[in-house]
Design brief:
413 residues; alpha/beta; Chloramphenicol Acetyltransferase; five-stranded mixed sheet; 37% helix
Length: 413
């Protein structure tokens, strides 16, 4: 199976950059996990998403997926998996469990957070149906394989838009002088009702408020910074592209500048500004134009560079394009949308691949907002500053854990 346009840069760029481009989603349920029932749920889920059952291989000058008839692996324990390797039957996703936790490891080159959530939702549906007797969820029972496999970027017409212009951003490792290190992740849990009450009172959303508070924390740490604090917010581009069903990478970006003008506004006005920026940058014409430009670029690179090494070099440059232009990134795939399984979820964590200096992944399930803050520098000043702001605004939180990155490795072909 050929790699689609929307996935191409993610695959070639991640391999070229030497990044384990994988995501680990951890779900803690109310009771200890039954391994045999979970194995059955994973098997049913693999059958539901046949196009995810592939092994990434290299065929001369290109990467592609070959059908993989081996079962998706399920193992007991929480150790790091290595996807696309013998230990995971050469699949690009795997499942493990320990005590009351389920871990889903997935290669981001094959799908994005929305696609991963759909796989996880299906696993939990089959598992909770067997263990707790929940009723059917029609959305998860039926599928439109053709629509799910279609990539809207494959058929986008060329567009003529001015090239994007970027300005250097304040970066924590260079401008901030922080010490580069291996990734570390803080998992922070906030009562959902309290956080939603706070963000609504300040004309915001969980995602934009997290953007604001992190920008404010960095600005306070470095009040004399000369470069702007610029953050990026991931957008699910499916609605704009008319491709709600697709399970390929289908993403856009909103960009925010925590400027002195914004800093001097009351928090509610800051929330209004950030929401407004989100609306403007999420317009259908803006998002689809960005997707079309990406599609044109990908096709051009593939057509003009038949050699694998040249393709990897160019796509790696695109993959690392945010370096020096983004201070931090925030991603929020959305609140868990299945109450019948959500009522059994106690914790929900999304750990990202290490692709930016500072990242915040937001989850919402089981009555809690979960913030996973990942950084690749050793100092704790930024996280400390962010938590101080939560305290200042009266937002209760619990620091659940702190540790190194636990995302799966990926064995490149």
């Amino acid at each position: 199976m050929k790699i689609t346009t929307g996935d191409t840069m993610h695959v070639y760029g991640a391999i070229g950059a030497g990044i384990d481009y994988t995501v680990r989603i951890t779900v803690r349920l109310q009771d200890r996990i039954d391994g045999s029932i979970l194995a059955s749920a994973v098997s049913d889920t693999a059958a539901r998403f046949p196009y995810f059952n592939g092994r990434l291989v290299c065929t001369g000058d290109a990467y592609e997926y070959e059908d993989n008839p081996l079962p998706v692996t399920i193992s007991e324990g929480d150790s790091k998996a290595v996807l696309n390797s013998a230990s995971t039957n050469y699949h690009v996703w795997s499942v493990s469990y320990l005590n009351d936790r389920i871990y889903l490891d997935f290669f981001h080159g094959m799908t994005d957070g929305t696609g991963m959530y759909r796989v996880l939702a299906t696993i939990l549906y089959h598992y909770c149906k067997a263990v707790y007797g929940i009723s059917d969820i029609p959305e998860l029972e039926h599928s439109d394989i053709e629509a799910e496999m279609a990539d809207p970027q494959d058929n986008m017409d060329p567009v003529s838009v001015p090239p994007a212009s970027y300005i250097p951003a304040f970066t924590l490792e260079t401008d901030g002088g922080l010490t580069r290190s291996s990734p570390a992740i803080w998992d922070i849990k906030i009562p959902e009702d309290k956080f939603i009450e706070f963000v609504r009172a300040h004309d915001s959303t969980p995602g934009t408020m997290t953007e604001l508070l992190m920008g404010k924390a960095i600005d306070r740490l470095y009040p004399e910074h000369s470069k702007p604090i610029i953050s990026s917010y991931v957008i699910n581009a499916r609605p704009m592209a008319g491709a709600e069903a697709t399970n390929h990478n289908c993403l856009g970006m909103s960009v925010f500048d925590y400027s002195p003008v914004v800093r001097d506004m009351p928090l509610t006005k800051q929330g209004t500004v950030y929401r407004g920026k989100t609306f403007v940058q999420s317009r259908e014409e803006a998002v689809t134009a960005g997707l079309a430009v990406n599609a044109m670029t990908v096709r051009s690179v593939l057509a003009d560079n038949p050699g694998l090494s040249a393709r990897k070099e160019i796509f790696t440059s695109m993959f690392n394009g945010g370096e020096g232009f983004i201070t931090y990134l925030v991603s929020y795939p959305g609140k868990w949308k299945y109450p019948s399984t959500g009522k059994y979820i106690k914790e929900f964590w999304v750990h990202p691949p290490c692709t930016f200096s500072l990242m915040v992944l937001i989850g919402a399930a089981g009555g809690s907002i979960s913030l996973s803050i990942q950084q690749r520098f050793s100092e704790t000043s930024v996280v400390d500053g962010f938590l101080s702001l939560l305290e200042e605004y009266g937002i209760p939180y619990l620091l659940v854990s702190k540790g190194g990155s636990d995302v799966a490795g990926f064995e490149a072909p």
